[in-house]
Amino acid sequence: MAYITANSNYTLSDVQRVIFRYSSTRIYVLPSVTKDGVVMVDLQVWESDDSAFHGSASMSFSEATLEALTSGESGEVSQFLDVVAQGVVDALEAISLNSGVTFTVVN
Hints:
The chain is built from two helices and three strands, in the order βββαα. It has 107 residues and is α+β, with helices and mostly antiparallel strands. β1 and β2 form a beta hairpin. The longest helix has 18 residues, at 76-93. It is elongated, with a radius of gyration of 18 Å.
């Protein structure tokens, strides 16, 4: 899994004001999406060898904000979300108790 490093001491929030030592930490970015399309991100700070959890913070972004950050063709974020939804459909259809049920991704 990808992670973020920093080249100096840092904080994750103006509110918390917790300072992390840059040389020994990794920031993991764990996104989720609300039903309204808001991308919620849990930032978790771990020791560089993943041996200890140091803290976390949350951020949120609109899909449009993230689309503006992509360098490729437009629609990359929504395409990613569609692929995730299709993965869920495939997993649900593979459950034997769902035999005969059709799941459909609707945009």
